[in-house]
């Protein structure tokens, strides 16, 4: 096997709840600190302790951050899954295992076995049983660092930062790293043919998960009321909001400039969002598909009564309880048309943590500007896995756009006002907040039909006028949501791919793979629904469009066909829905196969 | 009847202490059935707010779905209102209160809205001691869908169609008390002398205040054999005592006989005056309240009046330790930590 530098996939097979996560994270970070792009993925069970869990790190000099099939190096320390883990290694790959106890004799001949007696080393060097367990993880990181040529200085720095204030923990951790390194030095050839070499490729990038980015974006976006109900994989989003708000949003008396309430269910969480937003606070909730199902009635109220709100849907495998710890993009249609009657909603599709942060902050402006629900459509892959991302930034001169809200002075000045009138012709009415003016601006918000002045009516004409105005507002929304990224748009190329959210990494990599094979495609990444003119034009300029998404039913394609009246025959779906993040190989192979089939038909 | 609300105001009409007439607290003309108990409750709300001299725009009224939940249109026309979805008023009220702690919140619901579809939210609003006056207009039936039994209909109570209800009733005040509600009262829409001071006391309470108000449905549940009819309620009513509410600025002028009365000072300095208290009953003693409620139920009485109060309670904002400034008044200068803080956070992710 030839030497491959900064281009491999390593997988860790652990037992859930044994402290492996932090060791594995540190491993990924060590490569990132070597200036080399990494993409870690946590593959975990719906369980707190005892079941198998995996952690996968792709190292890519070219900066390909999508998942890649094929394991070059397996760190197998879970007896439950050991046999399967060994079987999953690519021929020519490596196995790092705990050699404290001997292995069975039926070894694979096409991989290299690297045994390190992790348990024995820890038993000999640490006295506390808990530490003997925890340091096993650090020992294998140490062994890996030797095998892969990662500088030990990187770990010294990480520990110094991690244990600032608890310095006595640094030495035993470094000792564990050294135990691993020493054992390799004494027993094996190193480095391996796959290895890391220092580069300057990550620059000012950060390594962070999307849930953290969304939680932080909510702090910067001015959210003051957050309501939620625990659900995988969204829970860490509210934890992040809490973490940053509790540091950055405390007043002079030590009181909180925000409120977080864990509600009794998702319905109630959405109720809080509507109540708070109606009353002039910026409010949001975070959930996953099952939560959106439960919130649907309130989402319809938001649409019809025109109450702002923000909801993050960290999508997971559906339907029903589905695969709660696996990723999918299968709530697209649910979110786009949530609730009974004629309803439709604004969706944002971030692809990176930076976009999670930016779009989350922007979503509050959008919600208040458009007086409706904004869906942040992330997924488990983006939300819970660390991703290399441009750093967060904020313009300190930026003000919040609170939309059309009449204050006391304006209420004094306006001759007449009606909550659902459309004086500007953009379909967006003016709203008032409770407690603003003693005698002006009060109205009764309701989900029943009403006239332009918010008076209850069962007359058809004002009902129809209102529904039409909502349609005008929808058209306005198309001009306000983020525009798509036209990734490649070469003249004369008649075929293109369309993707959104976390399909971006695999899609972008697949463009390169296909190009190497002489298949040249244009590409567009959609960032929002409803689709604006840019999307329409891009589609019009291409005869065949591959739509890449992570669900079975081609939901995004359905949305394109349904909303834009496009000919369904124009679209070819590339669908991955096995719960694992889509790979570039899958995308490129699906497109190749399709092209071959088409040629064959001629 | 006429469907036009007269603009006329009686020349002798009095202003309250902040210069508002009673009319300023009224709303649109009711579209409920003539004689509906709910209209009496609406009128009591108007009177209580007028007498308490709350600026109308400093009140927000919220409701769920049903006949009861339509009523916010019929009072406090200068207050914002929110007719939410069925059974979910408590969560919307929670959000509203979190956004602005400086307003008074009146949440109006019915027995269907609270005791069935909305039971979960009702229970949890109590748990959080949400600062809301929670009025259940309780008629034991679903009026808007033509009279089906609700979960507060007594076992054996006859519907208009003549069928006895086979199921046990949920008693909302008993439940609320068990859950830790800090203000529990029941009244009767036909007893304004009691209802108005109870609403006033509830509006001054710094936490969750439940008012379960028996409010007969004249169309579907006022028949012989119904235990929520006007006649049955009047015949079986038993008050815990009489109640008077003395706002902070008013002098106390009424004397009560010693031994049968009790004064309860509220956090804002106002006082609840209870007199003719039932023998041995103390509404600040939870055990005494529980005994009294069970005793009344055993005797087949409909107990009304203030059943329990904890005047020293802490409301939701205090429990969450949020700022004294309403959250909805804060701008980017207060809420946004700025680029410098963000640069520091970025460095933690490298």
**SS class of chain B:** alpha/beta
CATH topology of chain B: Rossmann fold
Q: Choose one word for the global shape of chain B.
A: globular
User: Alpha-carbon distance between the termini of chain A?
Assistant: 41 Å
CATH homologous superfamily placement of chain B: Thiamin diphosphate (ThDP)-binding fold, Pyr/PP domains
Share of residues in strands of chain B: 15-25%
The order of strands across the largest sheet of chain A is: 11-10-12-13-15-14-21
What is the CATH fold-level name of the largest domain in chain A? Pyruvate-ferredoxin Oxidoreductase, domain 3
Task: Give the low-confidence spans of chain A.
Answer: none
Q: Helical proportion of chain A? A: 25-40%
List keywords for this structure.
heterodimer; A: 602 residues; alpha/beta; Pyruvate-ferredoxin Oxidoreductase, domain 3; 4 domains; seven-stranded mixed beta sheet; six-stranded mixed beta sheet; 19 helices; B: 350 residues; eight-stranded mixed beta sheet; three-stranded antiparallel beta sheet; 13 strands; 31% helix
């Amino acid at each position: 096997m030839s030497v491959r530098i900064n281009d491999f996939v390593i997988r860790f097979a652990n037992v859930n709840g044994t402290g492996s996560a932090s060791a594995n994270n540190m491993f990924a970070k060590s490569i990132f600190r070597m200036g080399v792009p990494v993409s870690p993925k946590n593959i975990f069970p719906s369980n707190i302790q005892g079941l198998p869990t995996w952690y996968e790190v792709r190292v890519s000099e070219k900066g390909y951050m999508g998942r890649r099939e094929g394991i070059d190096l397996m760190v197998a320390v879970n007896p439950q899954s050991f046999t399967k883990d060994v079987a999953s290694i690519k021929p020519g790959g490596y196995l790092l295992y705990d050699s404290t106890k001997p292995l069975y004799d039926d070894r694979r001949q096409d991989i290299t076995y690297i045994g390190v007696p992790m348990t024995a080393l820890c038993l000999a060097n640490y006295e506390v049983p808990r530490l003997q367990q925890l340091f096993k993880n650090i020992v294998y990181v140490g062994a890996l660092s030797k095998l892969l040529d990662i500088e030990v200085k990187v770990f010294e720095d990480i520990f110094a930062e991690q244990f600032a204030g608890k310095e006595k923990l640094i030495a035993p951790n470094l000792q564990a790293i050294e135990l691993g390194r020493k054992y390799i030095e004494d027993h094996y050839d190193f480095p391996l043919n796959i290895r890391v070499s220092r580069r300057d490729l990550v620059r000012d990038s950060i390594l962070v998960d999307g849930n953290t980015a969304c939680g932080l974006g909510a702090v910067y976006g001015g959210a003051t009321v957050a309501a939620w109900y625990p659900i995988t994989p969204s829970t860490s989003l509210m934890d992040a909001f809490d973490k940053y708000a509790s540091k950055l949003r405390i007043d002079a008396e030590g009181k909180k400039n925000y409120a977080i309430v864990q509600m009794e269910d998702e319905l109630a969480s959405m109720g809080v969002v509507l109540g708070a937003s109606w009353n002039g606070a910026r409010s949001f909730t975070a959930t996953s598909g099952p939560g959106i199902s439960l919130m649907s009635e309130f989402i319809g109220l938001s649409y019809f009564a025109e109450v702002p709100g923000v909801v993050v849907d960290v999508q997971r495998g559906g339907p029903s309880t589905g695969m709660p710890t696996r990723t999918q993009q299968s709530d697209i249609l649910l979110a786009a048309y949530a609730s009974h009657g004629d309803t439709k909603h604004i969706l944002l599709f971030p692809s990176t943590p930076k976009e999670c942060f930016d779009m989350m902050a922007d979503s509050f402006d959008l919600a208040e500007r458009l007086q409706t629900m904004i869906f942040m459509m992330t997924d488990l892959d983006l939300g819970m896995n660390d991703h290399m991302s441009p750093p967060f930034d904020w313009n300190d001169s930026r003000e919040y756009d609170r939309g059309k809200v009449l204050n006391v002075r304006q209420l004094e000045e306006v001759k007449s006002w009606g909550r659902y009138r459309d004086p500007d012709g953009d379909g967006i009415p003016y709203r008032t907040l409770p407690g603003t003016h003693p005698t002006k601006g009060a109205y009764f918000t309701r989900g029943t039909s009403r006239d332009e002045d918010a008076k209850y009516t069962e007359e058809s004409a004002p009902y129809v006028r209102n529904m039409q105005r909502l349609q005008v507002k929808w058209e306005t929304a198309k001009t306000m949501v983020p525009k798509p990224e036209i990734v490649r748009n070469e003249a004369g190329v008649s075929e293109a791919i369309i993707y959104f959210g976390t399909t971006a990494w695999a899609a972008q990599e697949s463009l390169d793979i296909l190009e190497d094979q002489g298949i040249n495609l244009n590409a567009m990444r959609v960032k929002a629904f409803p689709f604006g003119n840019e999307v329409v034009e891009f589609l019009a300029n291409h005869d065949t469009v591959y739509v890449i998404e992570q669900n079975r039913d081609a939901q995004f394609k359905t949305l394109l066909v349904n909303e834009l009246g496009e000919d369904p025959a124009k679209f070819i779906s590339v669908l991955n829905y096995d719960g694992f993040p889509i790979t570039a190989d899958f995308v490129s192979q699906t497109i190749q196969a399709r092209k071959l089939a088409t040629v064959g038909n001629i | 009847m006429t469907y036009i609300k007269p603009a006329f105001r009686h020349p002798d009409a009095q202003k309250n202490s902040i210069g508002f007439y009673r009319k300023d607290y009224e709303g649109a003309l009711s579209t409920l059935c003539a004689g509906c108990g709910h209209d009496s409750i609406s009128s009591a709300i108007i009177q209580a707010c007028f007498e308490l001299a709350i600026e109308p725009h400093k009140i927000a009224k919220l409701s769920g779905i049903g006949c009861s939940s339509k009523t916010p249109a019929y009072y406090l026309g200068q207050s914002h209102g929110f007719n939410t979805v069925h059974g979910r008023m408590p969560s919307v009220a929670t959000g509203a209160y979190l956004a602005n702690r400086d307003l008074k919140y009146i949440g109006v619901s019915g027995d269907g809205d609270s005791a069935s579809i909305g039971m979960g939210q009702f229970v949890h609003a109590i748990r959080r001691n949400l600062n809301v006056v929670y009025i259940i207009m309780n008629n034991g039936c679903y009026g808007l869908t033509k009279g089906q039994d609700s979960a507060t209909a007594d076992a054996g109570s006859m519907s208009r169609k003549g069928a006895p209800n086979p199921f046990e009733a949920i008693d909302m005040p008993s439940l609320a008390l068990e859950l830790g509600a800090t203000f529990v009262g029941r009244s009767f829409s036909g007893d304004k002398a009691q209802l108005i001071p109870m609403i006033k006391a509830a509006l001054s309470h710094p936490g969750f205040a439940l008012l379960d108000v028996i409010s007969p449905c004249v169309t579907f549940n006022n028949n012989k054999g119904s235990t929520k009819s006007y006649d049955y309620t009047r015949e079986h009513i038993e008050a815990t005592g009489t109640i008077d509410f003395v706002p902070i600025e008013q002098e106390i002028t009424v004397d009560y006989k010693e031994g049968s009365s009790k004064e309860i000072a509220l956090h804002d300095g106002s006082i609840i005056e209870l007199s003719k208290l039932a023998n041995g009953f103390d509404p600040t003693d939870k055990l005494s309240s529980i005994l009294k409620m069970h005793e009344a139920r055993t005797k087949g009485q409909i107990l009304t009046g203030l059943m329990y109060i904890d005047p020293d309670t802490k409301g939701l904002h205090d429990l969450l330790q949020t700022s004294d400034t309403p959250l909805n008044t804060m701008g980017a200068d207060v809420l946004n930590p700025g680029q410098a803080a963000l640069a520091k956070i970025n460095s933690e992710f490298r």
